Amino acid sequence: MSASELRLLPEAQTDVANGELYYRQRSPQAADGFLVALDHAFVLIASAPNRWPRHRRGTRRFVLQTYPYSVIYQVVDGVVWVVAVAHSKRRPSYWHRRNR
Length: 100
Description:
Helix content is 37%, strand content 25%.
C-alpha cells in the first residue's frame, strides 16, 4: 500500500510552530527533537492512517512517545488531514471546532 498524502490545517501548523517555539526557548536540542518526532509521526500516519485508534469527532489519534503531544487527524477522500498537534495537558478539546 502506498502512503497517503498528509496535509496540515493552518491551525495545526500553528500548533507545531507554538510547540517548537516553546521548546526552542528552553533547549534547541529539545526543539529539534520535537520536530523530528513529529516528522516521524507524520510518516507513520501517512503510511497506515487507519492503524491508530479512533478518537473524537471522526478523528484518529497518534500519541508521541517522547513529548506530551498527540497528532489528531482525519482521513477525507484519501488525504490525511492533521487537525491538531495537541498538548496532552492543555485545553484538551480546543481543537473540536476545526474541520476539514
